[in-house]
Amino acid sequence: MRRFAGWVLVAAAAWLGFACVVPAREAQPVVWVDKQAQVTGRKVLRVLEVTDETGQSLPRERLAEVHERLESALRSAGLLMDSEPRTPGLEPLLLETSVTSYKTGDAAGRWIGFGAGAAKCTMRARLVESASGRPVAEVIHTRIVDTGGLLTIGADARIHLDLADDLANAIAGILEPGRARR
Predict the structure, then answer these.
(1) What is the pLDDT of residues 111-125, one digit of tens each?
(2) Beta carbons of 90 and 70 less than 8 angstroms apart
(3) Read out DSSP for 121-170?
(4) pLDDT of 28-42, one tens digit each?
């Protein structure tokens, strides 16, 4: 009986160790594109202010950080226009982004695993035509940090930035389908 209890203890310790090290498969963003709208080759005219739809009154600094991260990523990808277009052609797009759910979680709870103490953030980004306001594409994505214990201290302070990077990559994939995604 002692030997069996020893093996159970070793197995439990190994499971806890691997559960905190082996990352779960990353969730992929949900992407919708209007089949009748031409989105390939279009540019974003402006990234609008990020809105809070969580009902929790998120700090304005966090929303501003998401805005800056999206703007920077789109600018470095060459997808953000510097000024109003002067030539006729494809109507530029506006990017509307909102945080739809946000949970800070608890690092000590993440040590337990099974989603206890998980930090979670969901955002929606919509590309709309600048003149008509007609939506042409939408991306919804969720990031969850649910394991890692004390190694994930501060996950709630950076999860929104990682999610903004994911949204920017998805938007780049919509506007330039051949673009390699990271």
Answers:
(1) 776 667 788 899 999
(2) no
(3) EEEEEEEEETTT--EEEEEEEEEEE---GGGGTTHHHHHHHHHHHHHHHH
(4) 899 999 999 888 888
90 secondary structure, DSSP code: S
How many residues are recorded in the chain?
Answer: 182
Q: Best-predicted range by mean pLDDT among 70-74, 101-105, 156-160? A: 70-74
Among candidate residues 49, 69, 33, the one with its CA nearest the CA of residue 163: 69
Instruction: Check if the beta carbon of residue 48 is closer than 8 Å to that of residue 146.
Output: no
Six-digit token string for 142: 């969720």
Question: Which residue in this structure is represented by tokens 């969580």?
Answer: 54
Q: Could you tell me what percentage of the chain is helix, strand and coil, using 3-state DSSP and rounding each to the nearest 5?
A: 35, 25, 40
At position 81, the amino acid (one-letter code) is: M
For residue 125, give the H/E element and its range.
strand 119-129
Which residue from 134, 159, 135 is spatially nearest to 145, judged by alpha carbons? 159
Torsion of CA 146, 147, 152, 153, to 10 degrees: 70
Q: Which helix (H) or strand (E) holds 81?
A: none
User: CA-to-CA distance for 99 and 51, rounded, in angstroms?
Assistant: 6
The CA angle 99-102-104, to the nearest 5 degrees, is 145
For the stretch 142-163, pLDDT in tens is 988 877 766 777 777 888 899 9
CA-closest candidate to residue 102, choices 157, 26, 150, 171:
157
